[in-house]
Amino acid sequence: MIDLLNSIFIGVAFLIVWFHTEAFIEYGKLFKLSKILKINEFETAYNKDFTLEYLPWLKSSYPNFFTKLINCPWCIGFWFTLTISLFLYTIYIFPVIYVATLIIYLQIIKQFYR
pTM for the complete prediction? Predict the structure, then answer.
């Protein structure tokens, strides 16, 4: 049971860090992935408009399946929790982890970020 709760809260933490911090940009710079992740282009655009956020900018500048996928909490949450389920449990526990992760994530966002 504790492992199940850990999996859920790891998923919640992942979604919060992914969508509500600049960790993606900072780690991209740290690991010298700026060119691949278009971080330099984003920073140029950001210097002109300080309201820009990386993921929505990436989706509008490079509209393709992958950028749409990483901008969707339900989509990226699905793949993240599916991966956790397959590595730590069986596929049968996946719906529990996925739904619980989304419910808790959406409640945290509703409470603290809006």
Answer: 0.84
